[in-house]
Design a protein that fits this description.
Pfam families: Pyr_redox_2
InterPro entries: FAD/NAD-bd_sf (IPR036188), FAD/NAD-binding_dom (IPR023753), Sulphide_quinone_reductase (IPR015904)
CATH topology of the largest domain: FAD/NAD(P)-binding domain
GO molecular function: FAD binding; sulfide:quinone oxidoreductase activity
Strand content: 15-25%
Helix content: 25-40%
CATH class of the largest domain: Alpha Beta
Protein name: FAD/NAD(P)-binding domain-containing protein
Distance between the termini: 36 Å
Radius of gyration: 23 Å
Number of strands: 22
Organism: Hypocrea virens (strain Gv29-8 / FGSC 10586) (Gliocladium virens)
Number of domains: 2
Number of helices: 11
Length: 450
């Protein structure tokens, strides 16, 4: 039975390799890969992008059992945009995760393992266990890594249940953020954002706005008299502005000033020692140290080592793909989207919803020997909580140009925080994510897909 299955798989793999070639690249035979570990498409990553792409491909009707392989070492799949809600006491972290193997379609071959390396010249990858897996098309979407070591003393502070240091960028500590917010009765609260790319660039201030609203309701903070309040609030960001898109930055900067939040711009957190935080400053200026009673930290982030050290990466370590087609600039049977890609836009789940249809369409066209003509316009979105009950819904494309869904439909200004957007963030998006996006049937602003 096993021999017959292996023979069948070998025959199918040989047939596909003979018929599915690109005009710009011929696929080499991988002699040291077992036929049972050769697939038409290998998807690296079982996160938002990986599950969306693999299921969209399957729904095309062009793939059979084990044609598509998914590679990811994780046990759990997390709805990470929801960790802000956990930090604000609006959700529990347990309700926002699912066992990964339960989300992977049984028609896929699931390698629950890490990736040790890529061999794009012979169309194979090496798993953490040493096995080689061959592919005709490779999709690299493993997300990015959080570098806790970028801030000296951070790991120790997060692990100490007595410390007032937390981060919503970690499953283990996102609920600690709410605990520290509730416990603080007076003193200085500092919320940080690093220089450089991170997941959801609005999240560092989302948790700050929720904390401010919590303390306001508790009578501990008066936005009209911040200096006379029991709690003082600072936003220390390695960036020169509140937000990278001019329209929304203007609205958020006005909000910061109206609410009396101190803006510490181009302050990049580098160390924590007890109740003291040290920040690097630009232009060779001497670092400054500030005392805190509560510190919410966003560590620096970057590409995973196995991507950064590979032939697929650009100088910054991200998968080097075309900004429009999502296809690799050198290896024409390699694709990427989401956080691991070089696409010059925000790293958000919303961006993925617009990237994956382009990638899937172009990959399918390639398999048929056709041109990859679909183009991604850089769309991304950030539903930015500004208080309990209101969200500023930032939507934009390449160049920081606003691309507002509800502005187009109803003529409203999405830079104005609204209650209706709050329910999208709190209720609709988590629901649509697990019921449709990870199954490949959600297209973001374009709604449901087949």
């Amino acid at each position: 039975m096993l021999q017959a299955r292996s023979a069948s798989l070998a025959c199918r793999a040989a047939t596909r390799c003979a018929s599915s070639t690109l005009a710009s690249r011929s696929f080499a035979t991988v002699s040291n890969v077992s036929p049972a570990r050769s697939h038409r498409v290998v998807v690296i990553g079982g996160g938002a992008a990986g599950l969306d792409i693999s299921h969209k491909l399957l729904r095309s009707g062009k793939f059979s059992q084990d044609d598509i392989a998914v590679v990811d070492p994780a046990t759990w799949h997390h709805y990470q945009p929801g960790w802000t809600l956990v930090g604000g006491g609006l959700k529990t972290k347990e309700e926002l995760r699912r066992p990964l193997n339960g989300l992977v379609n049984p028609k896929f071959k699931f390698y629950n393992d890490s990736v040790a390396g890529f061999s794009p010249e012979d169309n194979s990858i090496t798993l953490g266990n040493g096995d080689k897996v061959g592919y005709e098309q490779l999709v690299v979407v493993p997300g990015i890594a959080i570098n806790y070591g970028s801030v000296k003393g951070l790991s120790e502070a997060l692990a100490d249940s007595r410390s007032s240091v937390s981060t919503i960028y970690n499953y283990d500590t996102c609920d600690k953020a709410y605990d520290t917010i509730q416990k603080l009765q007076k003193g200085t609260a500092i919320f940080t954002q690093p220089a450089g790319p991170i997941k959801c660039a609005g999240a560092p201030q989302k948790i700050m706005w929720l904390a401010l609203d919590h303390w306001k309701r508790a009578g501990l903070y008066d936005p009209s008299k911040p200096s006379g309040s029991a709690i003082q609030i600072s936003f220390a960001t390695g960036m020169p502005v509140m937000f990278g898109v001019a329209k929304y930055n203007a609205a958020l900067e006005q909000l910061r000033k109206e609410r009396g939040v101190e803006g510490l711009f181009q302050h990049d957190l580098i160390a924590i020692d007890g109740d003291k935080a040290t920040f690097a400053l630009p232009d060779g200026k001497e670092a400054v140290t500030k005392r805190f009673d509560l510190l919410h930290v966003v560590p620096k982030m970057g590409p995973h080592a196995f991507v950064k050290s590979s032939a697929l990466a650009n100088e910054a370590g991200y998968v080097d793909v075309d900004d429009g087609t999502t296809r690799h600039k050198k290896y024409s049977n390699v694709w990427s989207a989401g956080d691991a890609s070089s696409l010059p836009t925000s790293k958000t789940a919303a961006a993925i919803t617009s990237q994956t249809p382009v990638l899937v369409h172009n990959l399918l066209q390639t398999l048929e020997g056709k041109a990859a003509e679909a183009t991604y316009d850089g769309y991304a979105s950030c539903p930015l909580l500004t208080e309990y009950g209101k969200v500023l819904l930032a939507e934009f494309k390449y160049g920081g140009v606003p691309s507002e869904t509800f502005g187009d439909w109803f003529g409203i200004d999405q830079a104005v925080p609204r209650r209706s957007f709050y329910y999208l963030k709190k209720n609709f998006f988590p629901w649509v994510y697990y019921n449709h996006m990870v199954k490949g049937t959600w297209g973001g602003p374009k709604g449901w897909t087949n």
